[in-house]
Design goal:
It comes from Streptococcus agalactiae MRI Z1-216. By secondary structure, this protein is an alpha/beta fold. The chain is 43% helix and 19% strand. It is built from 15 helices and 13 strands. Helix 4 (125-131) packs parallel to helix 5.
Amino acid sequence: MTKKLIIAILALCTILTTSQAVLAKEKSQTVTIKNNYSVYIKKEKRDKPDNKKQISETLKVPLKPKKVVVFDMGALDTITALGAEKSVIGIPKAKNALSLLPNNVKSVYKAKRYQDVGSLFEPNFEAIARMQPDVVFLGARMASIDNIEKLKEAAPKAALVYAGVDSKKVFDKGVAERVTMLGKIFDQNKKAKTFNKDIAQAVLKLQKTIEKKGKPTALFVMANSGELLTQSPSGRFGWIFSVGGFKAVNENEKLSSHGTPVSYEYIAEKNPNYLFVLDRGATIGQGASSKELFNNDVIKATDAVKNKRVHEVDGKDWYINSGGSRVTLRMIKDVQNFVDNR
């Protein structure tokens, strides 16, 4: 055997050994995250305030996981924006869940390669058991003790990561935290930082605009099957007050799942400068009712209506897909564009 041949063989062995070591390292690499969230004790009693249990744990999650199931639609938006959609193998498609996605997300996940794993509320455990994902990103709607225990049985090796925005944190900070976490898991830290910077800049611009307008008053109302429900400033839509800078006319309203039923007279009495409306029925396909509800003389007499300061927000973004990096930026800019012209 010639000297050159021996050197070539040794070089090849070195390359193979190094490649195997790199592959083994990549396979074994994980990231550590804090997984703090609340779950429903009994999923059939979601509206009860004492029906939640706090979970606090530290998890090791595979770096750049290959098989991911996503139940949080905001997280799905961020994962897609990070360019990690090929890691996703399943999302909720049952009960019209696919139709509730933003168009730029739906166009990706309508493909058959993305399997149906149930609805936003109820996982299909048999489907998940067949798929054996590396990671399951939990959403607020399906996060119950029962569902989590069944997920552990169906996919015992999967890391169960809560991906919804922490409701105890100021909205934009909570979004930034989740975007950072997903950037870390999918090894897209640079993109995640850019998304968070864009959101922070949009927030600052909105705050300055609201400040210049003298911090006008506002009320957020949900229209639901012919009923008007005001939303607490401490609730899911309260960021327009805590972050945006509007002054809430219902600052003492207690937090509840869908809001507090009110009359036309209540809104007239509060008489906000701005009125934000979300039509839940139209969003989830149960029929629009906001235009009909606001077509009456009592509401028409309010300052918000007279000054054309009533804005119907995009229900898919605000109600279903909230927390996503692109969705959040779109929501902030939506409010910005509206107040700029009013």
